[in-house]
Amino acid sequence: MQLLNTGPDDDVTGLLTALTVRSSVYCLSDLGAPWGFEVDDASTAKFHIVLDGGCWLRLSGADPVWLGNGDLAILPRGERHTVSDSLDSAVRDLDLLIADHPLDADARLNGGGDGARTRLLCGGFTLSEPMPGPLLTLLPPILVVDPRSASISSWIDPVFALVREEANRPAPGAQAIFAKLADVFLSQALRTYLAGAGQAGLRPPRAERDSRIEQAAALVRGQPARSWTLQALAREVGMSRTLLTTRFHAAVGESPIRYLAKVRLGQAAGYLATSDLSLEAIAVRTGYASNASLSKAFKREFGVSPGAYRTAGGDLPG
N or C: lower Cβ tally within 10 Å for the chain? Predict the structure, then answer.
């Protein structure tokens, strides 16, 4: 995948070349409907890979997300969330569920009811040093990587096959193998998605701390679909529009509205590269009134249409 060279030492493109993921597997779950569990809030980023079946993932403040066979869900901020076979199923704390159904030596969990079964590989991950954690702040609250997306099937299919093969045959050291395979899944998925942020010119926050500017930037990244105006953003962080603009430019290197545009277009590029979401659905998620307005802004920023970007697997001309 081509990445634009934007120059600064702290740009996303340069950081992606050194991206190293260290994951740990919590459990390989084999659960019969009805079932549901809740994962506590923690600073560690979380992931779920659906090996068979499907489930709902719910995060406070966000619409429920359906995960189908082969889907990878990443929660970069590690917030409390629930996973269940149905939106109506009761959920239990994952730690309590594991206490009632002790894991075997390879971290396999069996439980739930007598209904349709779902298998999940669940765990957490960090970005190893010297990779700065702020890269994760460029991601949406939930990133779902769709194996049916043409731009990623070339790498996700063979790795997914290895995970499923390992899951089908209990063997010593399986948990360590799962973790290494998850490293590959996560590294490739993060690179593919974040390439769009690099091409849009987004950068992780600078070393200097300005808490209210950090708050403003986090609001934009976490709620790109909101109808943001400079006045609305300034009100959220308790600043005047002039003060917000001045301090935001000093901390981030550009105006709040330009940063908003980069966030939206960077996330749109990420969705195009990692999912088969329709352009209309991507427009809704990224704050554009229509797929036409997204297409116009995307082509102005990247020089190609969203469709051409998706077809090229996230590569840009030149």
Answer: C
Q: pLDDT by residue (tens digit) across 75-107?
A: 998 999 999 999 999 999 988 888 887 777 667
311: which 2 tokens? 């077809």
118-135: per-residue pLDDT in tens? 999 999 998 865 545 667
User: Mind spelling out the 3-state secondary structure of the chain?
Assistant: CCCCCCCCCCCHHHHHCCCCEEEEEEEEEEEECCCEEEECCCCCEEEEEEEECCEEEEECCCCCEEECCCCEEEECCCCCEEEECCCCCCCEEHHHHHHHCCCCCCCEEEEECCCCEEEEEEEEEEECCCCCHHHHHHCCCCEEECCCCCCCHHHHHHHHHHHHHHHHCCCCCHHHHHHHHHHHHHHHHHHHHHHHHHHCCCCCCCCCCCHHHHHHHHHHHHCCCCCCCHHHHHHHCCCCHHHHHHHHHHHHCCCHHHHHHHHHHHHHHHHHHHCCCCHHHHHHHCCCCCHHHHHHHHHHHHCCCHHHHHHCCCCCCC
Residue type, 236: E
